[in-house]
Amino acid sequence: MLDSYAIGNKIRDLRVANQYNQDKLAEILFVSRQAVSRWELGLTLPSVDNLIELSKIFKISFEEILCMNEPVVIDEENIFVGHDRHFIIKKIIENKLEVDLFDVFYQFSNSERLIVLKAIKNNKIKASLPRLWVKLTPEEQKYLKNEVTIK
Amino acid sequence: MTINLKRMIPFLDKDELTLLIEKIKTSENQEYEGVKLMSVIPFLEDEMIDKLFLEELDKDGSFVSIAPFVSDNMWPIVAEKIINGNSTTNIVGLFPFMDEKTLNDLFIKAEAEQIAGLDAVKFLPFVSDEAVDKAFLNRIKANKDYLPFLPFVTDECLHQFAEAFCQGDTEVDIDAMYPFMTQEDIKMIFKHVIEKKEN
Q1: What is the mean pLDDT of chain B?
Q2: Whole-model pTM?
């Protein structure tokens, strides 16, 4: 999964560095200025064709625009700053992002909490459940009840 | 000297607890001498909790707050009520408590639009990966909106679309799907399109 927010920042930085405004870039790519704006805000990603065109315009690889080889840097105070929320959650449940769930659990939305708990339940990620237990609602504790024995 | 009824709850016997519940239920503000139903629930026997839960569900009351205490054999009964249209309440709050089989059964019915007013997308964080993938593939076949499913579909399932696209299947909406694929699949797709443009 891609980090649309980081990719949006990258497109904006490349556009500014190459001295294009949004209108000019939109004109070159035959898309609307709003489309470029939405890419830069991380709301959508360019189509495959547009992304290949962007890589030609900015003379860099598609991998670089898509931030593929960049390490994911997070701020523990707010792990979602500068990133797409789905992307961060997916990285966590794929064990590709090291976070202390006990410290960051409060930053998740209700549905994100359940997605993370489902991953714990399915043994996709390891977590110190007895430690995390105090942070869970009764509903979440019930959801995990067969997976943990609280001593 | 006044007796604090709330502090007395752990020491009440079955009949006294039943009487207290009746008093709470029949009171205007659902409270008796400062005691609300939720304060009594943890001290009740399973059978009584299940009965109260069904009563609250039927009248669209505070059934979600009782749900953590309900016994597992209640969920098929609840599911049957929902499927038969005997319960019109918003049951999304119950999903975390339901067992996987009941949840998957309900999801399949919701996906088949057999449960009025229940959006199958609401099930996605709770149902099994297999159920999500199957429903996703069915939606594509039926030309139905599959975009809300994409963050929940497995990498393995999306991989088959990456392969199909690279083998020339132009029906695949790769622009919608590629952001959710693995880096390997994304690279494969982009390399395929670049090669095609160069030739």
Answers
A1: 87
A2: 0.80
Do A60 and A106 lie in a common domain?
no
In a domain, A127, yes or no: yes
Assigned token pair, B35: 């005691």
Only one residue has tokens 């929320």, namely A85
DSSP string, A21-72: -HHHHHHHHTS-HHHHHHHHTTSS---HHHHHHHHHHTTS-HHHHTTTTS--
Helices (H) and strands (E) in chain B, counts: 11, 2
What pLDDT is attached to residue A115? 86
A125 and A95 share one domain: yes
Taking only the tens place, the pLDDT of each residue in B115-137 is 877 889 988 888 888 999 999 99
Q: Which of B49, B71, B94, B186 to mutate to test the interface with A (most CBs of A within 10 A)?
A: B186
A131 within a domain of the structure (yes/no): yes
CB nearest A114 (choices: B96, B179, B182): B96
Asked whether residue A125 is domain-assigned, the answer is yes
Cβ–Cβ < 8 Å for B15, B43 = no
Residues A89 and A61 in one domain: no
Q: For residue B39, what pLDDT band results from cuts at 50, 70 and 90?
A: confident
Of residues B86 and B65, more confidently modeled:
B65
User: Residue A10 sits in which domain range?
Assistant: 4-65
Residue A142 and residue B96: Cβ atoms within 8 Å? yes
Gap from B148 CA to chain A (nearest CA, Å): 12
Mutate to test the interface with A, among B183, B188, B189, B192 (most CBs of A within 10 A): B183
CATH number of the domain at A12, please: 1.10.260.40
Interface residue A142 vs chain B (CB under 8 A):
yes
Query: Does residue A75 form part of some domain?
Result: no
* Closest residue on chain B to A138 (Cα): B68
B155-166 vs B183-198: helix crossing angle, rounded to 10: 10
Residues of chain B neighbouring A86 (CB-CB closer than 8 A) = 151
Q: What is the mean pLDDT of residues B56-66?
A: 82
Structural domain count, chain A: 2
